[in-house]
Amino acid sequence: MKYIIKVKNLITTFGDKIVHDGLSLNVKEGEIYGLLGPSGCGKTTLLREMVMLQEFKSGTIEILGYNLDNIKDKEAQKLRQKWGVLFQSGALFSSLTLKDNIALPLIEHTDLSKDLIREIVEYKINIVGLKSEDANLYPSQISGGMKKKAALARALAMDPKLLFLDEPTSGLDPISAREFDELILKLRPLLGLTIVMVSHDLQSICDTLDSIAIIDNKKIAYEGNLDKIKSVKSEFIQKFFGHMNE
């Protein structure tokens, strides 16, 4: 069993406020892993720490063999190219077309020819379920579901093996949300992805996740699969997953 992410004894503070207090978890290669918990528990903070957008006070985060607590700038740059990130808002550049948004990582981080970049962009647009003609549209001209797909295509531009998703179905109607779940399940084996996802969407959690880590009271209250969740003695967990016990 190969762990692609290892978090051990993580402590995160914002001033006097403790967000994580000795948090530990492990993500296996090839799984879809969910970070769950009540609002304000530090799920997105943990995700941001994993992708090096935020510093932690102590403990260790190891990703793809790199220790983030003592990583050098050159190694950090190399590691960032090994993962893709889909932010909750999509974070597309409004002044760029979808194809230019998706091409941006390839232009910035590779020496590929314009023709090859165009081919890669066309392929990524296709695999996320967008149409070829959508490539010339701007973010303001498309629906929320299409924005998520375009942002996903950009996150996949560099052929990462690790994908981080922050509330990927947030703001989507139920049909679009279930379409996105199906897309993730299709892309995981197609591209050989390991996926780490923050979510509040109970349907998405039940349909897509292999393993979960539930953060409650600054630590991991539960780590494992959903099958054993009913045996966990936590008021939050029982409320959140209440229907599964019926």
Tell me the layout of helices and strands:
Elements: E1 3-14, E2 17-28, E3 32-36, H1 43-50, E4 58-63, E5 66-67, H2 73-80, E6 83-86, H3 98-109, H4 114-127, H5 144-155, E7 162-166, H6 174-191, E8 194-198, H7 202-208, E9 211-216, E10 219-224, H8 235-240
Parallel strand pairs: 3-8, 3-9, 6-7, 7-8
Antiparallel strand pairs: 1-2, 1-4, 4-5, 9-10
Helix pairs in contact: 3-4, 3-5, 4-5, 6-7
Describe the structure.
- With 246 residues, the protein is of the alpha/beta class.
- It has two domains: 1-82 and 161-220, 3-Layer(aba) Sandwich (Rossmann fold); 89-159, no CATH class.
- Helix content is 35%, strand content 26%.
- It is built from eight helices and ten strands.
- The chain has helices at residues 43-50, 73-80, 98-109, 114-127, 144-155, 174-191, 202-208, 235-240, and strands at residues 3-14, 17-28, 32-36, 58-63, 66-67, 83-86, 162-166, 194-198, 211-216, 219-224.
- The strands form two sheets. The protein has a six-stranded mixed beta sheet. A four-stranded antiparallel beta sheet has the order 2-1-4-5, covered by helices on one side.
- Helix 6 links the parallel strand 7 and strand 8 (194-198).
- The longest helix has 18 residues, at 174-191.
- The radius of gyration is 18 Å and the shape is globular.
- The two termini are 34 Å apart.
- The relative contact order is 0.18.
